[in-house]
């Protein structure tokens, strides 16, 4: 099936939105967790490294779960529909700063960052897999992914300009 340019742009817009959120988080997370939240840099390093390892284990599990999903809404759409709100809530929770002792703050940082990573994975993997059910044509898949990558790079470039300017 041949995709229209608008369909390719629509497909790319989803990754563009995800890239804006995740790139913004990547740019400010260290500052936020150390200077605002009050984590020790060593604790933050352990947190970020450990969650990346956890994510490497979780990704294939989520990929398998999404591959075996078959609902009346499709294979990947339910994941996008039902995980978008938890993803947004996890971002909000990550930036809440409970006024409590250090150990509780550290536990809160772990819980919210793991939740953010998990909900991101539960959206990103089905989203990237979506192209397999949008079209059977390998050339159209390449073309749609080309739009997705270009739009993602535009988003990342914009974030690298806007986030530092907003911090001034």
From TrEMBL:
Against InterPro entries, the record matches this protein to:
MFS_2, MFS_trans_sf
Keyword Transmembrane, does the record have it?
A: yes
Database matches in Pfam families: MFS_2
Which GO terms fall under biological process for this protein? carbohydrate transport
Gene Ontology molecular function terms on file: symporter activity
Where does the record place a coiled coil? none
Q: Which Gene3D superfamilies match?
A: MFS general substrate transporter like domains
Q: Transmembrane ranges?
A: 12-33, 45-66, 78-95, 107-134, 146-167
Q: Name one GO cellular component term.
A: plasma membrane
UniProt keyword terms in alphabetical order: Membrane, Transmembrane, Transmembrane helix
Q: Which family does it belong to?
A: Belongs to the sodium:galactoside symporter (TC 2.A.2) family.
Q: Which PANTHER family match?
A: MAJOR FACILITATOR SUPERFAMILY (MFS) PROFILE DOMAIN-CONTAINING PROTEIN, MAJOR FACILITATOR SUPERFAMILY DOMAIN-CONTAINING PROTEIN
> What's the protein here called?
MFS transporter
């Amino acid at each position: 099936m041949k995709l229209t340019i608008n369909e390719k742009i629509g497909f790319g817009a989803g990754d563009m939105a995800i890239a804006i959120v995740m790139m913004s988080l990547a740019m400010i997370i260290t500052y936020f967790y150390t200077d605002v939240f009050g984590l020790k840099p060593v604790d933050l390093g352990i947190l970020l490294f450990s969650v990346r390892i956890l994510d490497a284990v979780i990704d294939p599990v989520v990929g398998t779960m999404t591959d075996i999903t078959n609902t009346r809404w499709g294979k990947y759409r339910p994941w996008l529909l039902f995980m978008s709100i938890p993803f947004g809530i996890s971002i909000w929770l990550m930036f809440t700063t409970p006024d409590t002792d250090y150990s509780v703050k550290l536990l809160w940082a772990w819980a919210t960052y793991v939740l953010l990573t998990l909900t991101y994975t539960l959206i990103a993997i089905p989203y990237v897999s979506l192209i397999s059910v949008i079209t059977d044509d390998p050339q159209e898949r390449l073309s749609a992914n080309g739009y997705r990558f270009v739009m993602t790079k535009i988003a990342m470039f914009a974030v690298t300009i806007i986030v530092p300017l907003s911090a001034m």
